[in-house]
Amino acid sequence: MAVTFTSMLLWVVRLLNDFEVQGNILERIQGYISIEHEKALTETGKPPAYWPASGDLQVENLSARYSEDGPKVLHDISFHIKSGQRVGIVGRTGSGKSSLTLSLLRCIPTEGSIMYDGVQTEDLNLDALRSSITIIPQVPELLSGTLRANLNPFGQYDDAELNYALRAAGLFALQDELDEGRITLDSKISTGRSNLSVGQRQIFALARAIVRKSKILILDEATSAIDYKTDSIIQNSLRQELQDDVSLITVAHRLQTIMDADKIVSGA
């Protein structure tokens, strides 16, 4: 009886421990339910059918913070980017370069006015705003699967457009078209992108931006971790392939990245 009682006691302890572990899952679900959500979609927040027709961006007295009760990271910034202009954003670490790009996408609380092609972004649904702006980060994200699925996840474009985007982004300048191991639309992207270099990921991100045809393209230090040859190819693609009404905002890491910019925004 003593041995049986000891075994049952161990079983009860194990059962209680398992119940406690499973209870952590419920706590996490409750935490996600109670978390503060972004602004819900509304009918009045839908933009006109023609919007955006240009990349005109006007910012007045923009201030931003990372939390509602946190200190301001941007203070009363005002500038105007005309459609088709190329603007470089430079500054030391912590000067607010990336914070400015987050503010344009309304990823952090902001104050002031941001007019995108004549429409106040505060009045727009978040999905409409963010789907009309393309950002290429320093380390772009790719999904496991084929390259075609990454460039065209919703099946909106044909292979001819995707191949044109890859060619325009400079992929074929980095590889021989006769090479058996060259990257094509059917090439597989492994989990964690371990079979791709950083430069290739940046080129795919640029190709995705060309396919989307957004009126505002943001490069958040996108070429800071790649070699000069690949950087030159990407910069040439940006100069030649972007349409005249596409505004390019570049968070700069190298001088040659912004040497042909129309305006320079400098952080303190």
Automatic annotation (TrEMBL):
The keyword Membrane applies. It comes from the Eukaryota. Keywords: ATP-binding, Hydrolase, Membrane, Nucleotide-binding, Signal, Transmembrane, Transmembrane helix, Transport. One of its GO terms (cellular component) is membrane. InterPro entries: AAA+_ATPase, ABC_transporter-like_ATP-bd, ABC_transporter_C-like, P-loop_NTPase. GO terms for molecular function: ATP binding; ATP hydrolysis activity; ATPase-coupled transmembrane transporter activity. Residues 1-23 form the signal peptide. Residues 57-268 form the ABC transporter domain. Pfam families: ABC_tran. This is P-loop containing nucleoside triphosphate hydrolase protein. It comes from Mycena belliarum. The lineage of its organism: Eukaryota, Fungi, Dikarya, Basidiomycota, Agaricomycotina.
